[in-house]
Write a structure and sequence with these properties.
Length: about 220
């Protein structure tokens, strides 16, 4: 069965070695010029956004695990979701590294539970329910999540309006990768809809198989 323990993992924040007031305290003779100092609102927005990136990463891990079960056996979707999980986790790490570079003391802890999963109340999904999962519903849920994360990134950029470097880091490459990912999901949903059109019964399963193979081969 699925490795459910991933839902309860705790991600530990990495503390920066520099004290956040060390360089930007105006009362110190060695203080940096103000333009070099971080913007507190920007750094707070980045700190808070990291949780959303880890949330997306763990949900993608969960979705990849579901489609990798032997009763589902959709290796293309598994590959896609696990790669997506790596990208989201990479974004979170990039943000943590950025805070470290700017001298922000980062020591937040995150715990992820069942609220991030499709099934909100149960610890397990039965084999019969696994068989009813559809690629179309998974893609649409992934798209909704990506759109929500993208919206939050736009909010971070706004919070960093007076911190040009902070805004730039989020705009490129993170925001660009978000838009690229959203576009890929939109295209995948359209392709899936076209494959399903006019099919019923076993035809639906065959259409999903064709789509999954396209995902596995990187054709979508």
């Amino acid at each position: 069965m699925i490795m459910w323990y991933i839902c309860g993992l705790v991600i530990l924040g990495i503390g920066a070695s520099a004290n956040e007031n060390q360089f930007c305290n105006e009362n110190q003779e060695s203080a940096y010029p103000k333009p070099l100092c971080y913007n507190a609102a920007c750094m707070t927005a980045i700190e808070e956004h990291i949780e959303h990136e880890f949330h997306a990463a763990f949900k993608y891990l969960y979705m990849g695990a579901l489609f990798g079960q032997y009763v589902v056996e959709r290796p293309g979707m598994t590959k896609f979701f696990l790669e997506s999980a790596s990208e989201e986790r990479g974004h979170a790490i990039q943000m943590m590294d950025y805070l470290n570079m700017r001298g922000i003391m980062y020591a937040k802890n995150y715990t992820f539970g069942n609220e991030m999963l499709w099934k909100l109340s149960d610890q397990q999904i039965a084999a019969a329910e696994l068989k009813t999962l559809t690629i179309a519903s998974a893609l649409k849920e992934a798209l909704e999540m990506e759109l929500a994360v993208t919206k939050k990134i736009h909010e971070v950029v706004k919070s960093c309006a007076d911190d040009y470097h902070g805004a730039d880091v989020f705009t490129n490459p993170i925001l660009e990768e978000q838009h690229t990912g959203v576009r890929k999901l939109q295209g995948a949903i359209k392709t899936m809809d076209e494959l399903l059109r006019g099919h019923s019964g076993e035809g639906l399963s065959f259409a999903e198989y064709i789509f999954d193979q396209k995902m596995f081969k990187g054709e979508l």
